[in-house]
Give the backbone structure.
Amino acid sequence: MGRKDRECILLTADRALDYREVLDLQLYIVDQKINNILDQDVLIVLEHKPVFTIGKNGNNNNLLINDNLLKQKKISIFHINRGGDITYHGPGQIVVYPIFNIKNPRIGIKDFVFLLEQAMIDTANEYGVLLSRNELNRGVWYNRKKIGSIGIAIKRGIVYHGIALNIKLDLTPFSWINPCGLKNIEVGSISQILRRDISMSKTKDILIEKFTDLFNLDIVKTRKLL
């Protein structure tokens, strides 16, 4: 292989993390990069504790349950500044936050989103699952079921937030929202398609490898988030 274009720090976690602490970490890294304190890009790969997140253009009406049920189910909710509407994160879903400077080397937003989708498509393909794109609804699909979502934000050339790929999570919470603001759609997972269990650790490694190849990353440091 040729020269890697991006020096990257990889951050991973062995347990599901609270959304707030990871959001704060993302914003801290973005500021470090904007202020030229951190040169390397950062790739965060983890699972979240149950949470609904609503993007900056999201509609609260796409949350179909009340506060009492949210408290009963112990699901947090955050309004954030990424694109897209409402989605769910929980254990059994791999979330990847690429905090990249897309000005150097320059990459367009459409190309960036295409590569995010491709990383999920290539990962699923390792299990023989063929996912596809939908030009009207970004993310990746298996027939009419949405398997992976994308929501990003950009601040002064630094992109953050990212993707969520459903591996073997409980899909019930998706029935309590209009996923991504879309009505009458189904959400699925790779494990559901295959009708068997899948290793989260192995799948995270595959997804990291796909990111490394597609974005030409040179992983110069790896750290665990406690």
Summary: The chain has five helices and eleven strands.
